[in-house]
Amino acid sequence: MALRILVCLDESTFSKAAMRVAVGLQHATGGDLTALHVVNVTSSSSGNLLQDLAGSLGFEPARVSPDVLAQHVASGEAVLAEVQALAAARGQTVDTVVAHGPVRACIADAARLADLVVLGLRGNTEDEFPGQGGGHLDTSLADVDAPLLLCPRDSAEVTSFVLGYDGSVAASHALRAIRGLRDAGLEVPVLAVHVGASGEVLAEVSDALPPGTVSTRVVATEGRTVHDTLAEVAREQPGSVLAVGFRGRSRSRDFLVGTATEQLVTAGNVALLVAH
Q: Where do the domains of the chain lie, and which CATH numbers do they carry?
């Protein structure tokens, strides 16, 4: 079955990067690509004061005038037309969806049918107010079961993976996500990295992937956190994606997952494949 890719788009520079990456993945795998834009405002009124109160106070979906709603819809349609044009230039087609409602809920709903979800690391807010964007991303990580590929502004196409591997269940999830993408046709090299004194567990990665596709590296932290070390290695590989999981062997704040993943997201300077 073809890889089912969902790319979630707004008008941000991060979204344009996600668009490029998603179209490139579709081209590499021959998969099916769906582009989603969420309109998180509404002009409708239920007539029930309590039901409408949240939107009137600015919570999603916020209440706006019909003209403003029409502008949001038109902007979303323009973004979706852009990804269709980008795909058409490579002989590909894209299904498009304009959803109405809270961003988090709409993404989670659409992602139920996806094998991979591609998102910008941040959104429109980050472009307009640097340092304040990405509010939906941390919750989307928990809501979506499919692997998420999170793209910083400079992302173009995926040319390699850097896998942070410690032998944990979470690391195996990241490895499985990479293997699934390779099986779908994304035949790019993998650098498996273990941060610590011994890299014996890296043999598990070599055994799980085709011969000749994996190289390994053991890196000492030298006073740095694990996630900073992995991000540094990933930045050394042009076009690379750092693959991480949600639960690692340690629950300390400086480990690969949990707070560390949030810090990688906040830094916004490396593409991430986050797997459950």
A: 4-151 (3.40.50.620), 160-275 (3.40.50.620)
d(CA 35, CA 6): 6
- Residue 96 is encoded by which pair of tokens? 């498009």
Beta bridge partners of 99: 38
Q: Which residue has the tokens 């591609």?
A: 118
> CA triplet 178, 180, 184: central angle to 5 degrees?
115
State pLDDT tens for residues 122-179: 765 554 545 555 444 555 566 788 999 999 988 989 999 999 998 988 899 999 999 9
How many residues appear in the chain?
Answer: 276
Query: Tokens 């173009």 map to which residue?
Result: 156
- Tell me if the bond preceding 102 is cis, omega within 30° of 0: no
Return the DSSP state at 180.
H
Residue 185 burial (C-beta neighbours within 10 Å; 0-12, 13-18, 19+):
middle
- Is-contact 226 255, C-beta < 8 A? yes
Please, are residues 52 and 26 in contact by the beta-carbon 8 Å criterion?
Answer: no
